[in-house]
Amino acid sequence: MRAPRSLTLIGAGLAGALLATLLARRGWHVDVYEKRGDPRVQGYAGGRSINLALAERGRHALRQADADDAVMAQAVMMRGRMVHFLDGRQQLQRYGRDDSEVIWSVHRGDLNLTLLRLAEDAGARLHFHRRLERVDFDGLGATLVDDRDGARHAIGFDALIGADGAGSALRAAMNAHAPLGERSDFLDHGYKELEIPPAPDGDFRIEPNALHIWPRGRYMCIALPNDEKTFTVTLFLPNAPNAEGDPNFAELTDPAAARALFARDFADALPLIPDFDADWAANPQGQLATLRLERWHLDGRALLIGDAAHAMVPFHGQGMNCAFEDCVALARHLDDHADLEAAFAAFADERRPNASAIQEMALENYLEMRDRVDDPDFLLQRELERALHDRHPDRFVPHYTMVTFMRIPYALAHARSELQRHILEDATRGRDALDGVDWDALDARVLRELAPLPDDA
Ligand SMILES: Cc1cc2nc3c(=O)[nH]c(=O)nc-3n(C[C@H](O)[C@H](O)[C@H](O)COP(=O)(O)OP(=O)(O)OC[C@H]3O[C@@H](n4cnc5c(N)ncnc54)[C@H](O)[C@@H]3O)c2cc1C
Which residues form ligand 1's pocket by a CB distance below 6 Å? Predict the structure, then answer.
């Protein structure tokens, strides 16, 4: 018989709560320490990004924990991007072929609550008001602080899993013990959230089943629906003045300056945000970064997952989806290896190249969202992409589909997207329509360069 197996999770956010559920159901003794208070008692004190786009990778992970139905009951379907042009025109660009290929807007707080309930039902022990402060890896002990009164609590552990997000305290402790090869690249753009409330009749003020985008070249606004008929608007802007003279957070020193920017660049959005000045003044300006580590674990004593291991910029809407995929992969490796160090190593070997691929794709997608979605070349390439997908359904699969509606490894999606991008660019160069495209040559190139994709996902 195997020895009793216990794991101590740091962070009861999205990844921590899901992982606790998956592990507790497999018979692990799971303790989860979270720095905030219990959101079931005092309401959710999220802090950032009120809603998130949930895609197939995330939904698959939720299904493993029987959480999908509860989460989907509060999710709002987004069929595509609704592009808002400067002149007020709008255009819906579908993400997939039909309503089987859509993404879902979910509320971070509701999702977290659902997952916490499941974790506790599965037998995980949740400890709130416990902020990891210090770890003694040699003595297998840690100190946690209750920030309400500063009281310190000592615990022992067999192994720690860090699901404590981008600013991970466990990562800092591991790095101090044995360097992880850490590099953080801060984006020179930040974000701020605003709210579109329901219309006076209680309904949504704009099309609910879309992710709205106001692309403006080097900056943009987006809006995602919430099931209480509001939208969360996120403005992405350079942090500081740049050579191009773009608007930037440093120069928007008060709500009036920000309002003037909206009146100029996001004129159709401004009247939808009645509490603009109050939202602007109250909501913090968020920073965005890509975190890369050479090592994710300290032998069998500690491992990082989710944002703690690979925080990324949010432009592909995959950070949570990737963190959920981590949870499923880790549970599988723990099933397959009796030895924790072997399980952690196998997990990191599998996930590191994939996290790195989605981090790159997320950076690339910022350019696409803010600059390309209203560009005729881009739209022609999308038309050709759809046509090639119809001609070669198992070989030429659109980039967005591979990342969002499938579960093939991110690294494979990235490599295939690069090959496909060259094919699309070569075939549309100098054209403003698909008439005259040499389909025979294109078909031959697709057959030569793109092997059929595995159909397991
Ligand atoms: C603006 C924005 C928009 C985004 N949009 C999307 C999207 O549309 N789709 C998507 O998939 N992803 C999106 N993401 C990414 C997503 O938010 C993260 O990838 C996801 O939250 C990662 O989950 P996590 O559990 O690793 O970390 P978190 O969700 O950050 O959870 C970490 C938890 O650890 C706790 N904690 C922190 N420090 C300690 C400590 N010292 N001791 C104990 N507990 C601690 C925190 O309180 C928190 O509960 C977005 C991110 C941002 C910033």
Answer: 10-16, 33-36, 48-49, 52-53, 131-132, 163-165, 169, 191, 234, 286, 306-308, 314, 317-321, 323
